[in-house]
Please model this.
Amino acid sequence: MSSDSDLLVLGGGAIGLTVAWRASLSGLTVTLIDPTPGSGAMWAAAGMLASAAESHFGEEHHVALLSAASDRWISFSRELEGDTGLNIGYEQNGTLLVGLDRGDRLEIERSVEFQRSLGHNVADVDLENLSEVEPALLSTISVAKQLHNDHHVDPRALGRALLAALELNNVSLRTSPADSLTQSALGVEVTLGDGSVIRGDKAVVTMGAHTNFLETANPLPQIRPVKGHILRLQGPVLLKHTIRGLVHGRSVYLVQRKTGEIVLGATVEEKGFDRTVRAGEVFRLLDDARRIIPGVDELELVETSVGLRPGSHDNAPVVEWAEEGRVLVATGHYRNGILLAPLTADLVVDMLQDRPSIHQELFVSAHSHHRSS
Amino acid sequence: MSSDSDLLVLGGGAIGLTVAWRASLSGLTVTLIDPTPGSGAMWAAAGMLASAAESHFGEEHHVALLSAASDRWISFSRELEGDTGLNIGYEQNGTLLVGLDRGDRLEIERSVEFQRSLGHNVADVDLENLSEVEPALLSTISVAKQLHNDHHVDPRALGRALLAALELNNVSLRTSPADSLTQSALGVEVTLGDGSVIRGDKAVVTMGAHTNFLETANPLPQIRPVKGHILRLQGPVLLKHTIRGLVHGRSVYLVQRKTGEIVLGATVEEKGFDRTVRAGEVFRLLDDARRIIPGVDELELVETSVGLRPGSHDNAPVVEWAEEGRVLVATGHYRNGILLAPLTADLVVDMLQDRPSIHQELFVSAHSHHRSS
Model:
């Protein structure tokens, strides 16, 4: 059996595109298989690279991984923008955590205490100066905390840049879905929806919520879709920071881009493969956002969309061998697919080349709490 | 000067398409001029044919006109569907007027008293039986009244059917905008955006909110755009009736179609030619609708759109000669363009053929109150 490529990447989301790029840079010949690369969960995502704000109680074991992933982004974005000449909307304008009522204030104070205990730098904002820090915020919110170093990226621009990088590096693209994957001592074979067969030396499965649709001899890790509604608003630039709000106990965020776009999200729903945009969820997102930022009312509502985040059994990413030596899975990145993509790709490329990886331990320990309990 | 057609119709909204159809049936050769016929205010409209529910205080002088227009629809829809073989979503499932709080109840009782004084048949609904009459309604609303005979039509299906009828009747279509109109003793001449010139014996200007963009020797009646936000929801059929609600003093309506579509509207905004879908208005429509019909939350939000209703100085339709004997205007139909289209077309065809029209007086008296004051 002769291989078409050294590596087949099944899935063209944030992880698949990044793995394909980094693998091609490492000297491998790569084929990427995805009917619509750059769409899916990546297309809906807001692109927050928020290791501190994403540090939640009970997820202490994720913290080191998220921090390392966040640090990795700075050089990653420079390299991608440099290679392709494309802007990916990378910005470091910080995050404000704000709470509306007294209960929201107490909850934010509790989590900031926790974030500080993990070593994150979280500044108090004097509410008397709030209108200077973030003029668009409601003046009667009960608490505001500032994370100076949080950054974000535009996932759609990222997708375009990664596709351009793949083309520059001669990665082949097959836009038919991967139906089944088999492996032998000689290599791997993928049958596509159009009936064609592609052979490779090794394969990486990065199919997110669709991982379990792939037919394989041994079962892959169970991944479930976690539905999220996201709105896109447009207008003159309204916010100086990314806002993460608690509004009567409900979480809402707004990511402001320099283009005037605001990404408003996101619901977290266990509804299987339901991609329907529901009136009630759109209502709740708008309701929560306008309660803390009245100027939201004047923005144009450009898009309502749904993304399916890939969740593993414990919501930590799964990067491991499915078939020793030939087939890797890199999936289950849940809310943090964009943030983790560069680090996951580094680990995958190390594993493919049978090199020890400095990142391995971070991914393993993200699971350890749950696996040992 | 030789004419291309007996009649040039400038504008392809509800009025223009209907006038072109009826004029071609009367034996005239017709050219319709519109860059995107069937779009505009017509595309956004809900299609309520609601002479009773649209009878408001201070608009008594419209009542006879709206009633006649409503009666005319029954034969009109049969004829159009018969000629084209196309379904236009004509349905007569009645309207429920409902109010949420005590103030809403008082206001609805006042307007029902008024509607009854005008001869409309409005039935009381015993709130104890409400869940049988309309199971989707909130059980704690304060009042419900039923208009058994109200009907509605799907304006987009209507547009498609009228375009098909025009083709059957050999109406020419020119899809470049009409820039200017001149008339002489010999006929009329229209210059289009693409530089071409079309000649006709007579012309009808039915350009809605865009009427005053047409260059003419003498000014046409002033028409302003009245912005309305409209949402389209989709799901299993939720409602048995059209619902017109008062929710803490704000008006909202929901028109249910057999296809499962619900058209939810509509805001009334004096904002000039602003076509932006605003987050705040989408929020308010959803907020009001779900307060009286909780099941709205589960529907898919399929579309958010804006229409520009054409309003005259007194919001009554303007059907009159602009240049005696050659150029008619038929515009300013405001909220009632779909309802009035068949009657307006009858009047226009009579006027074009210098026949006395039984409808003339209805249109004149719709204005008389304001003109004499």
